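Um, can you check?
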Amino acid sequence: MFDFVGVTPTIKLAQQVVARRGRITVVGVAGGPTDWSFYTNPYEAELTNTYWGTIEELYEVVDLYRSGKITPQIKTYPMSQALDAYRDLHDGKLSGRAVVTPHA
């Protein structure tokens, strides 16, 4: 199970519905601390986070990009507009990623 938000309510919901011996991977980095205790997950369920998958998966994604099978959706911003990039992400104005370039 993946949590693409990463806040306490969504993590707690995942802990309530994950199967025994299941795995919750928190991908979202919405921020803020969250509480965890030994008794909040079902028996032998894992709660983990990641910024990326395995190195083998990274190679697969690079190969997909190089072969033209995936195209990243990005919008670039100069450093002077970094706050605008954050606001656009926050307000849902971007469907992909914001990239702030220091020397645009």
Helices lie at 8-17, 55-66, 82-90. Residues 72-104 form one domain.
